Amino acid sequence: MPETGLGDPQATLRIYLNNRPAAGHFSSPETILPLAVGDIAFIVAETGNHWRKIFNVFAKLMWELTPQLADDYASWQAYRDQALLQKNSQVALCFGPPGEERASGQRIFMGKQFATDSGFFSTPGAQWLDNSFAINDAGDIVSPYFDYRQLSDERIRRLTGILNRS
Fold it and tell me: Residue 5 — φ and ψ, nearest 5°?
């Protein structure tokens, strides 16, 4: 079964979560669906604060992880609205656990319970780095859920450091 979600089908960073936005055709894509300018605003308008937080935290993570984004965008908000999860963005938000065929690049499982349910902790070398983050031998990472309280700015910086080392 192919992976489904939002973003760049050729993503080098894939974030996996156990829910999807209840917003038109974005709720049930058949593959990784690239967004267009305005799609994030539409999804947030249709679904509310929960998805706004996910997109904001994702954009803040990418802003921290990729400092050169500041060359093209005035702020993480501008990056979110103009490029996040679009074609050639190199990032994807995938619905459900990873497919059987491993996509290349880095993978983050959003939330401890989702990672546990997805079998993350039965993978070789799976171990907790601290109370918030885990990693396995393949370099896959468990992160707190993309919410301001769970993945604070301080934890975003910690996740960036983990990603840069794996």
Answer: 160, -155
